[in-house]
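Annex B, item 7. Sequence and structure tokens for protein A, then protein B.
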Amino acid sequence: VMGIGTELYRCRIGLFSPNRSCSFKNNQPQLGFRGLSFRLVPAVTLCCLLLIAGIELNPGPPIYKCKYCDLSSSSISQYARHAAIHKLRKNFNVPCPYCDRQMKFASLESHISRFHRSARLRPQVMNIQMVKCSTCRLELSTRKDYMDHLQSHLKAGVQIQCVLSNNCQTPFMDKRKFQKHMSRCHAGVADFFEPTVVSVSECRSSSDEHSDEDGDADAGGQDKNFDCTEGAAEDFDPYPYSTIKDEVAKFYLRLEGDFNLPTSTVQMIAEQIKLITELSHHRLKIALKQELESFQIDALVISSVIGQTFKADPIFNVHHKSEDTDHLGTHHLRKKYWEKHFPYVDPKEHYYGLNRSGKRRIAHLISIKETLKVLLKNENIKEKLLKSFSEEEAEPTSVKKDYKDGEAFKKHKCQHNGEKCIQINLFQDAFDFNAFGPSFHKTLGFYYSLASLDPESISKVDLIQIAGFIVEKDLVPTEQEELDGKDVLKEAIQPILDELKDLRENGTVVDGETIPVCLFLLIGDSLGQHTVGGYVKSFSCEFFCRFCPISRTEFHLNPSETKAFRTTEEYDSAVQTAYLKWDQRRKHLLKAAQKATMRKARKAAEKVAARCSAPAKKTLMRTVIPQAAYKKLCAISYKAVKYRPSPFNSIPGFHCSSPSQPVCIAHDLFEGILKCVLPCVMDYFISEKEWFDLPTLNRRITNFKCKGSDARDRPKPFKSIDKLSGHAVENWNTLRLLPIMIADLIEDPDDEVWKVFLNLKEIVEYVCAPKIHWKNKRCVRYTNCVSMAQVAYLKQITRTFANSLKTMDDRFPNCLIPKVHFLCHYSDLIDIFGPLIKVCTLRFESVHMFFKAVIRNSKNYINVTKTMAEKSMLRFASHNSSDLFPADIVYDPSRSRCINLNTFPAEKKSALPKNFNPSQYEVLDTITVKGTEYKTGYYIPLNSSMLSTSLQVGKIDKILLDSSGCVCFLVQSMEAENSFQGYFTINSNKLSFQLLKHEELNDYYPLPSYEVTGKKCITLKHSICDEI
């Protein structure tokens, strides 16, 4: 069917065969009415049924459409040849035309050959007559006979010549060269020397049968099976000019948006390419002219041929205005082309007054509504979004794995009476570009993500979008603005607030339906959350918690104490109380300033006294109010609530104390509590117990061989005993792996300080749990992803940890920080927000790395917010013109193997289902599923029980991938015993084999094994609970 014209196809299947109810006379059809009444009714009925069913009488050859452009092809070879032009796109994946499975371009050939060989069977009639041997004139009818016959001549030392084409004039004396010739030049010619019906898969296997006899036959390229093997139409152009121009524009777009090259550097590259094409044309024209003149062709014809030929060079044309008026030679023209052909959203400048230096305050904001429209045009995002709506309406299950299982989401759904709603999470954080320099250019960034998507999609950095950038020092109000009661932060982000209000009221269109878009959560570190939430910015105040009104005195007396969460009414009342205190203090300062000014005026000259009038009030207030009094005025609060409410409280249906500001475990635990506690533990072991010294500890850390994902963020050595160096994930891995590193150095496993360390490690495992089964039916009170027993246990061990820091304050000096109090709230916050790991800021802060690289590479610190906003939109346009999602399954097809059940032991065969078809599977040693890498030899937690000290794990023996993209693991079940020293010891008693699908795994995270005193051990990334 593929590779032939529609008319020829229909002719071959008999559509144009003469109607038997017609007779021909003098080559003109004459309708015979005999029997027409008997044939008309069934024919009409059949046509009506086909039309109702939507089936075309003769659909013709299949059409394969490129998902990146509108080009269509009628054969696999054309489809693959054209797809190659897009393969440098980000997250480039080719859908299989037979099963729509997304895969890398290099994997397409292997996939079709392995799983769709029968699907490629197609009838094909070749009007080639019998072929005669050029040596002995023997007539041959099949390719096999032709190959065998000519190879017999070669073995006899007789020279042969291929006669399959007029272009084959080369004589052959070597069998190997003849096989290469047949494989490369006549791969599509199989057993059809006489008119017959064969299939493409048979043709390929026939040619491969000979080419595989020698190792390098067919060694011509990675897409050999697609190299014109299916009779591609001569008029098919896989690379049209418009597509090539788009790819050149996309090349420049990626240079600026993805690779952070400065605009001046990209312009230099464009000019250099322009010069290179000119030089290349010059040399090619000279060579072509000399060659044509040697054939004595007329000079006018030569000039015309050369001119028309080189006018067809698309790379030359897009860099020269004389050849293409819409060329890409300058940054201005490239930007115009990007705005027209790519989803580019232009950043807007927002002016909001003068700062303390008298300079203009300008924020660069990006429309949330416009970027959201572009995102919702993506079919994958739309599909995931619509799927999330159906999941919301589904019956509650025993698995709690998302924020949708928390009380905050249920409360939010009640506002919409159960109707559809798109939730977005807004993240804010201030970041600097130079870790050692002054924070003069420190910028406050606002990002947002679609919270309605599944957790795997929310965590992808490419789906985190920019809302705006503001220079942080511009958010500090002047003295006059403070006295006038102006909220500078609210003025700076007013366009964002207006858009969020509009999106909630008017919504956005998704699949023809208008759905409201609501702000669901504000995400950030503790300082940022307090800044935008209207709380105190200092954590050394008497009241420091945004969740409850506990005082510092009460916290130090009982560190494990927590009070009831602050309600919205209590928050608003606290704002009013703080405002009354602030207003009273402000009036007192103004009155005192006026008295001081009048005293100075009476002592000064009349000109000075005149300045005390109303027009000079601004200067008067700035100079007379003491700085100490002004700072006290700005610090006024009531139970940690400031005198100005959060700007986001003006959005209908949202209130920051509902609560809508979750904690960040990365800042609180990994870069807060852990940085305080772990150095104290090591100092105790080194200085007091003298179990080891600092060089020994660092040597253990440096020489420890981390495996898997642990190697990407391996623990950092201690530079000094007073400080833990490393970022959040490195500190997390230090906590996880340190018990294995120093297991043989701990002389007393019951040491109280060591128990505090293990207590903290256990807390982290529970807090970082992404999904846990909830099977305690008696505990219906809690509706989160962690069972009641786990929530109660987490609350218990956090209280134990907080009280230990107080009772052993000599061992842990200065460790009783406010983040310890936040930790005591975690068990209750899980009930509200679901798994706290799902609202962590780490994925958002990964975006900071891009903007830091932008400023460093541009080497321009003038108007940094504009530079970052423009680069972020170029990056947005680049990503949204490609695939936002990488393939769910990534593997190397060259390392896949077929299954040979004959080599399987009996215990492995017993784990396979009865209908197991080995031809539909391939065996792999490594595979990446949804960003998680699995390898043979790794351990997967299968189930656990809080009433048992053991954990059942499965050692990955084989990874199986079927033709539909389903990943299965053949695992060997084992028991892992809890050592109660921070790790589990693998029991060498092997149980049985199981075949598990990836979606059936209780826990998705594979664990590498390490050796401790000669035994294999694993350390958990997060807690596992399957039974209670």
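Protein B:
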Amino acid sequence: MGVRSRLASLVKVFGSNIPASMEAGEAASQMTPTTPFSPGEPIGPYDGYQRNPRSQDFVTGYNIATRPRTHERVSFDTLKGLIDAYDVASMCIWHRIDSIRSLDWSLIAAKGYGGDVTDAIPVGMAALKKPDRELPFESWLAAWLYDILAYDAGTLYRLRNRGGRAIGLRVVDGTTIAPLLDYWGNSPAAAGPDKPEPPAYVQYVQGLPWNWLTRKDMIYTPFRKIPGSPYGRAPLESILLNANTDLRFQAYFLQRFTEGNIPQAFASAPESWTPQQIELFQETWDSLMLGDQSVKSQIRWLPGGSQIAWSNEKDFTDSFSLFLMRKTAAAYHVVPADLGFTENVNRSSGESQADVQHRVGDLPLIKHVQGIISSFLQDDLGLPLRFAFDLGEEQVDRRDQAEADKIYVDMGAISASTVRELRYGLPEPEGQPVPRFVFTTHSGPIPLSSLYAVAGQIDPNTAAPAPGAELPRTVFSGVEGTEPSPPIKGFPLAEQIYGPSAMPPAPPPQPATTAPSGVEKDGAPAGGITTETGIVGYDLAGRYHEDDEAETDEADREELVKAELVAFRRFRKARSRAGVWRDFEFRAADPIKGRRLNQAGRLAVRKAAGEVAVAGFAVRAADTGRVLMLQRALDPDDPAAGCWEFPGGHLEGDETPLQGAWREWAEETGLIPPSGEKTGAWTSANGIYQGIVWTVATESSVPVNGDREITNPDDPDGDCVEAIAWWDPEQLADNPAVRQELLDDLPDVLAALGVPQEQDDEVVKAGTGKAAALATGADWPGWNLDLHAANHWAPRIAGALGGALTVHHSEQLARDWAAQAPAADDGQAPKARQAAAGAWLAGQQPNLAGPVAAVLAGLYADAYLIGSASAIASLDGGQPSLGDWAHGDTDQATSQIDALGTADGLPLLTDTATSTAQGITDARLKDMAKVLAVGGSIAAVAAALRAALADPDSALAVALTEITRGSAAGALAAYQLRGITTGRWGLDPSSKTCPRCITNAAAGPIPLGQPYPSGDTAPPAHPRCRCSLLGY
């Protein structure tokens, strides 16, 4: 603008002196009169040649006006009157205002600015807290947006301090401002940086030109700027006829309910009436009806032959009024449903309308507001900041980016590790990247190595087969990770070119099948049993052909089943001696029976080896505390038929309990394991069952089937169904519908679920006659605290153990052991093999005890406080004095112990942490040795090593045992402080006490520090012991 203004000082050139360049151009374009049938030479210009053009054609004396919008078709007064009278327009305007001012906003660095804006942001926030020093930002924004949406005349005045610096923005009524024009039809501006500012706006007040203002004084930027006018175009201007019609429509209905001199109906009197009789009847009628609304609900008799004709229609439809309303809403880019006019629209059209409102309506106005405020911050306040509303686009952008990344990963363009590092800056553990692959819905992930194996020679420039490359001479028969779809039909191309030699070699001929004769006396497999697998095979070719099936005699089939069961019994004995189970392949027996026989055999082998054979999956909802349980089908061959228990089943192959529980969950519920975390575990008394507690956020995060029935996966016919439901753990106790094995382990189950257990009147039900000497829950308050403490410390113990063995380290251990371990079939006994693995592990000198000892030091402080406070409470009555202590707050625990006066014994207890940690790690090394002795693939052994080391059930056992030990030490210090010299053994309240603890409790009070019959001077007497030391 400044350049154009400076051109005003130039002298105009009048006359017909056309520049030589233009004359030459006219001649070349044949625009001269000398050209036949020429379009002609244009009339000579008034303003000159090649001068700056006017932006618009305006009337002469445009700036000489008596009010704003004098030369526009609609004045501000007309617009104001329409908006004030038209309710739909007002509703649309305020809906748009509320939609924008409800957004959060922030100040960020200006585009292109790379410096630090930490100090500038508070300055900008202070300036925008109250932009006009009076109204808060939301109210100020609403006033400004109203002028923009109602009149497109949003006007802001720059507030300045005494030094002339801008300090704020004040909203000015835009209907009082009239923009001025310069010679070129633009807003007047200074001719240069140091030139004086011309007036750019005139404010009219009371019909008088009140004030002249420059562009430095005002911010006047129309939102819907149109050529040919310095004013903007208000939305209502585009629907003037529609608004006028709607107003008249509403006025028409208003008149229907307004009293006037036009009656609502005309009645026809009988033809025999005279005018005098009609007038008399009218007077009588008016005296009865006029002004009395109650009469309208009564019955009045009319003379025969009278007829009523209404003067206006009685039926009304809103179709036309809704049409007018929709046009107005469209002008303001508002969805009618947002105004409360709910129409019959489907979800798709509703979402698309909402998207249009945001994309076409709110978003352009938001950018308009952001640009003006950002310009004020940068140009007037000199801050390198940008004003930005939070539109929620970052989450949408991140979702779109994630979808794009998934496409690139699935097509093999990049690796998942590339996305991990590029998006989140996280390297892969041990620096091992995830390999690239191509993902297909039919075959899943196909490694690139599988593609290279079948691709042949490839041109590096085109990634296509190299020119002249020879076709592979063998038929493609599938590579691991790939599966042809659809199957190959007809003759393969390689066979067509190279003949039968291209086909894969046929499998070697199988030896004739002999009747299974089991195992010889020396243990060698007999005929009919393969030496490699020990699996009995039968010639069942043609079994599934209808013709052969018809010829098969039922008696022969029964004999075949009997022979197969005899072979299975011999196979089971052989597997029991080997100590490793492998499923027997049943071909004649019933599939369900065969599956259960294999499960029973696997259970016996694992039980003999001291391993878990069955796993359960207890999904617990954190929001309700309820657990998901499954009711077994009414199968006469199932010992748990009709009972409720947790989903689960027998482990298969090299599965860990968690892996087996996941698989059984998926099979029995038809769902994938929900997102959550492992928060606990328990093991049955016989050691063959392990339950996994898997905590999810809410019950709704587990999409249980609506019919609440699940098909039994062990039944191939699908005619057995099971029910699934959420249970409150408190409903399990003594419930006849719950499986008995679960009830037997219920105390441990409830402890793993984190359910506080209250004491029964009789704590132990051992049937020994010594129950009368046992303690109750009221004797020892610590039983209300120890389980919570154990649940807090168990994950930390597991984490300290598991953190010492990384994925890379565990895989390296598995490789090193596999490289020097004796072969599995060398005849070495399982126990000898396990001993060798333990000795080898000890030689690796794993550093495990240090981290565990650090955790035990904190655990002992908590346990010591529980014991001291509970002992004092048991003597004095009331609740334990714990102060502000919380689990894991070692400093607060120590401070509270000092307050109780029992701190002398804590250092002696803490000094045992190192030796106790060494014992714990030695036990874990034994479990790791079992894993190495069993063997398997490198990945499976590595995973099993990590699971054995950080087993949460073992960690919970350690936590319970050591909390009991620390609690007894704290109780002993409290008794000595109070002068108590004797004590008695308080039994574990979980109703699962061992004979050793029962004998200790039956011994009665003995001097403190003296051994009980078990040889222990205080609890614990065994792992998981929760017994207490009671003063007497």
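Comment on protein B: The chain has six domains: 1-53, 68-252+316-390, 395-502, 513-608, 611-755, 775-980.
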